[in-house]
Amino acid sequence: DRLTVLFPATVTDIPEEAKPRLRHLAEQVLRLPEAKLQLVAYAGGGESDAGKARRISLARALAVRSYLMEWQISHTRFDVRALGNRFKEGASDRVDIIVVSR
Known about the structure:
Layout: E1 2-6, H1 19-30, E2 36-42, H2 50-69, E3 78-82, E4 94-100
Parallel strand pairs: 2-3
Antiparallel strand pairs: 1-4, 2-4
């Protein structure tokens, strides 16, 4: 399973329209006690903005993690990766959530 949350440029708060999909994902993950969640976050910006892009991507990943933790998903089930502006394809301002079943 995979879910992508898109963000407006430089925004780190979870968009309201993404919250129902995140709730649904949380409900699914709670039924899979062995599953882990990889949060891979990105942010747009040029090479000169690499540090800023990494900070924004980290803030987005942590916002998604906090929101999912509100639905009783343990912090030990998350792997957070803030990749900043290092993306090859897809939208630049996003968090990809990948469910890894064991």
